[in-house]
Amino acid sequence: MLEEQGSLSSPLSLSDSQHVLQPSPERAVPAAARSPGSPRPPVPGSGIGRSRPLCKGEFHKLADAKIFLSDCLACDSCVTAEEGLQVSQQNVKDFFRVLNLNKKCDPSQHKVLAVSVCPQSLPYFAAKFRLSVTDASRRLCGFLKSLGVHYVFDTTIAADFSILESQKEFVRRYQQHSEEEPALPMLTSACPGWVRYAERVLGHPVTPHLCTAKSPQQIMGSLVKDYFARRQNLSPDKIFHVIVAPCYDKKLEALREDFPTAPHGFRGADCVLTSAEEGVTRPHAERASRSEAPGDGSFGGLKEEEVRRHDGASSDGYLAHVFRHAAKQLFDEDVGEVTYRTLRNKDFQEVTLEKNGEVLLRFAAAYGFRNIQNVVLKLKKGRFPYHFVEVLACAGGCLNGRGQAQTEDGCADKALLRQMEGIYADIPVRPPENSAHVQELYQEWLDGADSPRAQEALHTKYQGPGLPALSRDIKW
Ligand code: SF4
């Protein structure tokens, strides 16, 4: 098995950075965790804005321009040595270590193995191996179960919770917003590359604008280690939970300090594997073993035969869902098709709700480093025209995550990406409000949608207002 050495959500390229970053003369490369000359910890790579890892020459160009890797989003400069080690340990070897332990005689060492697959990973398998998305799902599930995995889940249900909580939070923030206590704009929090950048680099005043709804991965961790564990009469530490995801940033997300789900205190995801890691993609390459099986999609014994997705181009569609919900709740307006207007480029788009010539809601989607920097600059200058921004680290959204759709030399595989976008667009859409199972889980798992338990399980906290950004001195 290969040990993956990829990269986190892509940092900036020189051309991206020059027009937005004013280098700070006193800045030093913040490799606080490393002594001079010591090797970098073995960190898989990352991603906002560029399509391949920086080579040595490019790094020197950046250094010449007094722009350091610490300016990047989720680059390995904000990853401590300990985090780097823990990220690098989340690999296929670890997965097989647990599978092999389960084959040994000592039952005290055995674990229940659960794998949760992100919906953005399936188009990769389907495109790469010329399968329908349903066949790709069944083939992956069959392979994992033939290895000894006990349960295979779909993280779409966790995204349902995350979207529903984001919708409610936006309406609450809109109603609370005032000059004295600005609760808007609300910035999405589902992308770990962006959230890490906001917390570690930007800090206040950006973090109070992050939506507090947990990401789909975090909620999936709670569902598996809390709800599912209790249903199965298992201690959470008896479950080894693996997530299959489109990017390396989700490996870092698995280490978030508040990720352990109260009250049991165990980490929600034990290991994150990207779609392209060898042990995940191999079932499709091995044509000989064509075992297929349905997933265990909804925790209630129901088998999800059909793959479903959320609205939006490739990333669970927070903007579209929150927009429709807010239009109805705040202005009693029914929005059918959401119309996007492209601004500077295809990764920076705007959606407005207008009535009698007045703009009632103004939302934006900002994907990739350059667009995020422009959004942050506007926010810092206090000239912010948007009520809500869907922020994603990867240009093009999650299908373009650096854990998939890459050529062997680390460049974006544009032809494969186009195929994946077509496949994803053809997956039937199911709004989260239409999931009866989510409503049941609100009652059965969380004592109701507005209970303190729901707040605890589905929301998180960020670096508090008033605290300085962690060891960063970016001056824009
Ligand atoms: S945009 Fe999606 S794939 Fe890219 S870093 Fe964020 S969560 Fe990962």
Automatic annotation (TrEMBL):
**Where is the stretch described as Disordered?**
1-49, 278-303
Q: Which residues form the Iron hydrogenase small subunit domain?
A: 410-466
Cite the SMART domains for this sequence: Fe_hyd_SSU
Entry's family note? Belongs to the NARF family.
**Pfam families with a match to the protein in the record:** Fe_hyd_lg_C (PF02906), Fe_hyd_SSU (PF02256)
Protein name in UniProt: (raccoon dog) hypothetical protein
Here the segments flagged for biased composition (Basic and acidic residues) are 279-290
Ranges of biased composition (kind: Low complexity): 7-17, 28-37
InterPro entries attached to this UniProt entry: Cytosolic_Fe-S_CAF (IPR050340), Fe_hydrogenase (IPR009016), Fe_hydrogenase_lsu_C (IPR004108), Fe_hydrogenase_ssu (IPR003149)
TM region(s), chain numbering: none
SUPFAM superfamilies associated with the record:
Fe-only hydrogenase (SSF53920)
